[in-house]
């Protein structure tokens, strides 16, 4: 029997007890909590972050630490990964097969109507800042922005809806720059329109920072 080696997958670590996969969440001090090997139990666990806030982006680096799920007959490793990181395994396989279709940020802007058409007005510098601030908080590699993913990476073929929402807000901020505010951890992770939101405040500070300091505020 060939021994299967552990490996990292986003914020997860996949280990094997003989041939049984065991999925571990981010490391934490103390004893790990065992999550039942059921779709509903695992989905409920990864839905919120350690502060109790809803995680609107499953691949954000906001996963609660200190837990594991032992895959069992009827709930495979692929089943567990699909719950935690939807489409991640499928996109890996499509990338390896050369069938993963990429969609640029501009194309996403072009197909918008209504209130989200404003996102397309965001400047090139604003778009780059939005990509840095949001994508650096995600485990995926943004192939849509020209990055290259390794075989173990989770590819991102298209800007997500949160990127679109951030770009819309950022376009409005360019017209009327808001005053910065201290980061407030109680503000919802994707509430970009609320002062104190981590991503909003990081973006605003980065856009106002000298060029040699860009990237230090992530």
Would you give an account of this structure?
The chain has 218 residues and is an alpha/beta fold. The protein has two domains: 7-86, Gyrase A, domain 2, CATH 3.30.1360; 100-213, Alpha-Beta Plaits (2-Layer Sandwich), CATH 3.30.70.2320. The protein has seven helices and seven strands. It has helices at 39-46, 77-84, 88-97, 105-110, 124-135, 161-175, 198-208, and strands at 7-9, 12-17, 20-24, 33-35, 67-70, 140-142, 154-156. The strands form two sheets. A five-stranded mixed sheet has the order 1-2-3-5-4, covered by helices on one side. A hairpin with a 2-residue loop joins strand 1 and strand 2 (12-17). Helix 1 (39-46) packs parallel to helix 2 (77-84) and helix 5 (124-135) crosses helix 6 (161-175). The longest helix has 15 residues, at 161-175.
CATH class annotation of the largest domain: Alpha Beta
Number of helices: 7
Strand-pairing-aware structural class:
alpha/beta
Strand composition percent: 5-15%
What oligomeric state best describes the polypeptide chains here? single chain
- The unreliable regions are none
Mean pLDDT: 94
**Alpha-carbon distance between the termini?**
45 Å
The CATH architecture term of the largest domain is 2-Layer Sandwich
Total beta-strand segments: 7
Shape: globular
């Amino acid at each position: 029997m060939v021994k299967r080696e552990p490996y990292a997958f986003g914020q997860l670590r996949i280990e094997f007890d003989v041939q049984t996969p065991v999925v571990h969440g981010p490391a934490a001090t103390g004893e790990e909590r065992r999550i039942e090997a059921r779709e509903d139990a695992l989905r409920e666990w990864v839905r919120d972050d350690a502060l109790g806030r809803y995680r609107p982006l499953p691949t954000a680096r906001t996963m609660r630490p200190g837990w594991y799920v032992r895959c069992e007959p009827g709930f495979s490793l692929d089943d567990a990964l699909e719950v935690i990181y939807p489409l991640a395994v499928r996109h890996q396989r499509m990338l390896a097969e050369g069938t993963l279709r990429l969609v640029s940020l501009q194309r996403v802007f072009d197909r918008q109507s209504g209130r989200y058409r404003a996102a397309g007005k965001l400047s090139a510098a604003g778009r780059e800042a939005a990509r840095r601030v949001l994508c650096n908080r995600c485990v995926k590699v943004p192939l849509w922005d020209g990055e290259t993913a390794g075989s173990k990476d989770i590819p991102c073929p298209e800007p997500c809806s949160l990127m679109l929402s951030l770009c819309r807000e950022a376009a409005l901020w360019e017209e009327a720059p808001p005053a910065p505010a201290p980061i407030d951890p109680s503000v919802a992770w994707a509430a970009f329109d609320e002062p104190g939101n981590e991503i909003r405040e990081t973006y605003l500070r980065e856009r106002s920072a000298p060029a040699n300091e860009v990237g230090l505020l992530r």
